[in-house]
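Below is how a single chain appears once it has passed through the pipeline. First comes the sequence as given, then the structure the pipeline wrote out for it. We keep one example in the README because the format questions we get most often are answered faster by looking than by reading.
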Amino acid sequence: MLALATLGHADASTKAVGSFATILILGLLLLFAGLFNIVVKRGRDIGIPGYIAGIGFILVFFMGGLGIFLSILLALVPSDTVAVART
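Resulting structure:
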């Protein structure tokens, strides 16, 4: 969005805006990959299979602020909670 806003200025260089947008997108992808890794590992620690935690995270992530809220809740769940409940 910042790159598009910069395009609105008459003196903005399209090369600078393109470079800024590329860096911003790469940074966001790296942030998503890191958060995805943490959520899947934490899901396995709780006792949920990694692929289920990953699919659930991807679905919830694109809902907006709900993904951040559920990631915080996931961090507060004690280890082996689901595994203990099954036995």
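The chain has five helices and no strands.

See the next section for the split statistics.
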